[in-house]
Amino acid sequence: MGLTEIRTAVKVDLKKPADQQPVLHNRWHPDVPFTAKVKDGEVFKVECVDWTGGQIGNNDSADDVKNIDLTKIHYLSGPFEVEGAEPGDVLVVEIQDVQPFQEQPWGFTGVFDKDNGGGFLDELYPNAAKAIWDFEGIFCSSRHIPHLRFPGQIHPGILGCAPSAEILAEWNRREAHLISTTELKRIVALPPQPQNVHAGSASDEVKEKVGKEGARTIPGRPEHGGNCDIKNLGRGSKVFLPIHVPGAKFSIGDLHFSQGDGEISFCGAIEMAGVITLKLSVMQSGMKDLDMKSPLFLPGPVEPHYGPSKYLTFEGFSVDDKGVQHYMDATVAYRQATLRCIEYLRRYGYSDYQVYLMLSCAPIQGHVAGLVDIPNACMTLGVPMDIFDFDISPTGPVEKMEMGACAVANK
């Protein structure tokens, strides 16, 4: 018996503006119309644009990163109507394959400008920067960060089912409360934004409603997953998602060729457009049976492997770069581990921005080492030494080399 051809349930046009394509949307809302219908247990393909909708070019300038319009993101493919799916069920998503488009075998990593998106280290590195990565089979390399080559663990950054009206209202309530009560002098959450809302094939009336109420796709949320950026969700993985509306209204996008734990520069994976092959199955009454309050996942068997002795590991503690002691703050600790790595690799000729980009997208491992010894949380950042074509071990020679430059924005 011959193999059954797998249909492509959603096709995109890379030459057409994303906001003119009815198979895409960029807000979470239960009223975004279905794009396609799939059967319970069906295997199918989905084409995805990159998360910005094509705003970033394959060039040597980061002006496009600096001036990116963040009211447009993320562009997701869907939502899909899954036959038989009802609220209270669980959608089992099996990721069978992910590939870049043959006609676009490249991706990008960016550092956002502090005043337009920012990132994990934006107080120290406030300017926009970019690296372009070329794909060669499972490997990637960049003209902007030389002496690196590594295999990617290709995965989607975003997948989730639409919220119910009640859950959407709760998201908006609690995020509005954070915005109104924060003492931090920075943007802490993004409320609904009518500007540049795209709701697929919705009527003007529904589109207006989605603009006023729809949740931004920037953060992941416990009730449905969404933008979780888990680098281990590669080929062969299974994700278990709560279903809140009839038909599930499943959407997916933000494909990554590779990513480091934390995706620290915000635009930190190797972002790409491509095709993902999925199998969707419905687990009836799964939310009750699993006592599910947030998604679960089983990682797949495909992952770049480096031996335990092949990681150069940096420690960070809850003392910031100004010498201020924080209490058990894992974010401060991970930031410090990152800075120790930047300082270390700087010795070989890399710029700080090159290392920042590298740590966002290369297969680094971020671990919680300790949360028990007050007042210092301890985090570690492990860099696989074999991704470099020279020795970076502490016992190796230190030779400062000509490393070129990543793309930088005009000031």
From TrEMBL:
Molecular function GO terms recorded: hydrolase activity, acting on carbon-nitrogen (but not peptide) bonds, in linear amides
SUPFAM superfamilies to which the protein is assigned, alphabetical: Acetamidase/Formamidase-like
Read off the InterPro entries from this record.
FmdA_AmdA, FormamaseFmdA
Where on the tree of life does the source sit, at the highest rank? Eukaryota
Family annotation (Pfam families): FmdA_AmdA (PF03069)
Q: Which PANTHER family match?
A: FORMAMIDASE C869.04-RELATED
Q: What is this protein called?
A: Formamidase
Its source organism is Letharia columbiana
